Amino acid sequence: MAQVILKNLTKVFDNFTAVKNFSARVEDGKFITLLGPSGCGKTTTLRMIAGFIEPNVGEIIIGKEIVYRSKEFYVPPENRNIGMVFQSYAVWPHMNLLDNVSYPLKIRKISKKERYAKAAQVLEMVELEGMGQRYPHQLSGGEQQRVALARALIVDPYVMLLDEPLSNLDAKLREQMRFEIKELQKKTKVTIIYVTHDQAEAMAMSDEIIVMNKGEIQQIGKPEEIYENPANKFVANFIGLTNFIPCKVSEDRKYLIVKDGKGSKIEYVVSEKHKEEVILCVRLEDITLKPYDEEEMNGQVIRATYLGNLVDYLLQVGEITMRVQVKDRRFSTGDKVSLIVDKKKILLY
Ligand SMILES: Nc1ncnc2c1ncn2[C@@H]1O[C@H](COP(=O)(O)OP(=O)(O)OP(=O)(O)O)[C@@H](O)[C@H]1O
Ligand SMILES: [Mg+2]
Prior knowledge:
The chain is built from eight helices and 21 strands. It has 349 residues and is α+β, with helices and mostly antiparallel strands. The chain folds into two domains: 4-235, 3-Layer(aba) Sandwich (Rossmann fold), CATH 3.40.50.300; 241-348, CATH 2.40.50.140. The strands form four sheets. Strands 7-8-9-3-10-11 form a six-stranded mixed sheet, with helices on both faces. A hairpin with a 5-residue loop joins β12 (242-249) and β13. α2 (97-107) crosses α3 (112-125), α2 (97-107) packs parallel to α4 (141-153) and α3 crosses α4 (141-153). The chain is elongated. The mean pLDDT is 94. The structure holds adenosine-5'-triphosphate and magnesium ion. Adenosine-5'-triphosphate binds next to β2 and α1.
């Protein structure tokens, strides 16, 4: 439907910079997700794109049209061809579904007949056909969520902005709705900018993810790039579960010497760009355990938590602790084990 280009968007509330120098390009028909911890500026960014918050500086282009440029242009929300689903999805309890869904057309002064006809269409699109006369309290949480989606779709948006649209749903329904939203996008070919702080949701749905922290972009990339090649420690920590292990590089640069008080060694060729002191990042699933072997890095199980598909082991390795998640259920609290780090998955910072 339309590309979205954001250039150097900055928003300062009083003295607090909520979003700083945000630049990104969302290609037509893509699904892009803003991912980051609470308060990092996701909603503020989305509301600037929608036109509900005016940036201090920057430029916003939707399709071919500039909708915002500092001190020159400001196109109001209703003229931006955008559908938005808000963070606390408000379906109005006193309105039936037809009125809920057709409300954006009412604001645009479209006749009742026309807007009800269109509402019936979008209700069908989200698989709520024939339910127009019902009230929200007669729907399940997932169905209410779809009403909010239908209301965003009714304006034939070029772009849909979805702010944590699934946060009120239980885990199973959330997962199901992920697929439904993706299907809806296939049908409508609408560009979607999605906000979540749930990384699994971001991974499953997005063509690209923008990781944010404290108002600033940390990394933009495909889900697998973000997961496998995090740009910095923040991203490595925020996405997935990661051990951060302080190490020294051996003089011949062929070993990492773990600062665990006993100098456990991991064979690993360290490139020249790293200093003598490094932080080894390795994900919980990229370490395997085997029975004690004095040649390897060793530790003792201090907690084994059964997670169903995996066991989460907390290990005392000399003076430090490490966590490992593996299918292997052989070990229990008190056991001495060896830890084998998958060298291909090692990241150094
Ligand atoms: N109108 C406002 N006035 C002052 N500060 C604000 C205003 N709106 C947001 N902020 C601040 O800006 C920061 C970013 O807020 P924002 O709502 O964008 O975060 P978020 O990433 O959406 O977080 P969450 O995941 O909790 O929804 C927060 O620290 C917030 O307190
Ligand atoms: Mg928010």
